[in-house]
Amino acid sequence: MYLRPAYRRLIWLALVVACAAAVYAWRGPALIGDAEQAAATLWRKASSPPPPSAEEQQRSQARRADPAAGTGPARPAAVPRKCQLNGQTIYTDGPCPAGSLEQIVPENLSVIAR
User: Fold this and answer.
1) d(CA 45, CA 51)
2) pTM (2 d.p.)
3) Are strands 81-85 and 101-103 parallel, antiparallel or unpaired?
4) For the chain, which residues score pLDDT lower than 50?
């Protein structure tokens, strides 16, 4: 029996679709979960910064080993303070002015402008 090439292609396509449907029915949720996990991993890899080059690592190690070679001594991070004085709130990184009441600083405070 002779089938036209177009019919043969349609039969092969139907077989491939039937096999794909059978695989999906058998392992569909697991395959989709694996694909989502692989896509998330690839996205994290693609969006992360590249690792430092050997030259950058050597410079960084040299700066850590020789603090005098840097721009100056590193200052520790200032502790923000909230001071209440005459009904006004003052944020500072130094001690509160005389006569003011020091209060608890909110946790979400991240920048103090001078």
Assistant:
1) 11
2) 0.30
3) antiparallel
4) none
